[in-house]
Amino acid sequence: MKKVLFLVFLIGLLLISCNSNHQETYNFFAMDTIISLTFYNVDDSKEIAKEVENIYLKYDAVAGDFTSGRNVKNVYDLNIERSININNELKELINFALEMKEKTAGYYNPFIGRLTHLWKDALAAEKLLADDVIFEELAVMQNTSITIVDSNATLIGSGNLDLGGIAKGYATNKAKEYLDSISCHGYLLNAGFSNIVLGDKFGDSFSVGLLKATKTGYFYTLNLKNKAIGTSSIREQSVLIDGKYYSHLLNAKTGYPATDYDSISIIGDDSAILDAYSTACFSMPITELKAFLALENLDFIVSKDNTLVYKSLGVDDYA
User: Fold this and answer.
1) To the nearest whole percent, how much of the chain has pLDDT over 70?
2) How far apart, in whole angstroms, are the C-alpha atoms of residue 206 and residue 6?
3) At how many degrees (to 10) do helices 286-295 and 271-281 cross?
């Protein structure tokens, strides 16, 4: 469950200075986001950018849950029809979502679709959902599953599928795999608010500023290359109700918006995993969050009230 996202990425890019070298940037729209891909001394950059765009568009075509797919069945169609034939991209996403549900002990839950839409409408009206509605929807989630036999997917129970917490990260990782396969390393792939992949900039690193969630400016700065970052934050989608910020990031255990943090940024190599984990970890108590990401050997940074509240030890390596 995530995120109508925008080009302004939580991780502001303070790109370090360099000599006069060849640099080209390509932008395209996919997954409700302007994707920006910048190359540094890369030949055939236009053709490479087009292939990256095609990767995003393939997964965008099947991940949507608000309107029916045009030329291919998508999540919306599955939620409405309950049993459909799906293509390989949607099958990949569903299987990965189920894997992440298991891996995160249900903190990431792809069957949160109905509750996601209810909260979206409530927060748009600057209201909170009633407790009895939430409890009912939690029961629906717990009694929903999915089966896939060959190319047929069937939802069992009354819940709806929502792949918003993984789809863009999954596509971003597929794009990175393609860039790696052609030995393209001089690039910056900015997939909006929650996903970024950094190659290198003329062989050097990028200076990356982590933006405050509800104020201007940065609360921390990193120096990174050949890494990915997955972020969940209230920055772009939150509503202030009775002096408290509520966002689109729901706790799948309680059914309420998660409010312990402003943002979580996780540093690693696989954008698909980072996307799912940042969604799940946003709802975890800090002790559970630390233990979970320590087992995964992932470095991370957590903020609250626009201030750094915790960083893993490995983060200092990127200072």
Assistant:
1) 94
2) 21
3) 160
Mean pLDDT of all residues in 239-261: 95
Pairing of strands 244-247, 238-241: antiparallel
Q: At 20, is the pLDDT very low, low, confident or very high (cuts 50, 70, 90)?
A: low
Are the C-beta atoms of residues 224 and 77 closer than 8 Å to each other?
Answer: no
- Separation CA 293–CA 1 (nearest Å): 20
How confident is residue 33, by pLDDT bands cut at 50, 70 and 90? very high
Domain 65-156 has CATH 1.10.3980.10: yes
pLDDT in tens, 289-299: 999 999 999 99
Looking at residue 264, its amino acid is I
DSSP of 102-115: HHTTTSS-TT-HHH
Beta bridge pairs of residue 150: none
Token digits for 188?
A: 């910056």
Mean pLDDT of the chain: 93
Gap between the Cα atoms of 27 and 23, Å rounded: 14
> Which region, left, alpha or beta, applies to residue 304 given φ > 0 means left and ψ of -120 to 50 means alpha?
beta
Q: At a CB cut-off of 8 Å and minimum separation 6, what does 124 contact?
A: none
Query: 245: which 2 tokens?
Result: 């910020």
User: What are the residue ranges of helices labelled H in the chain?
Assistant: 45-63, 75-81, 88-103, 113-124, 131-142, 167-181, 271-281, 286-295
Three-state secondary-structure class, residue 51? helix
Strands 33-40 and 83-85 come out as: unpaired
Distance CA(143)–CA(160), nearest Å, equals 11
pTM of this structure: 0.92
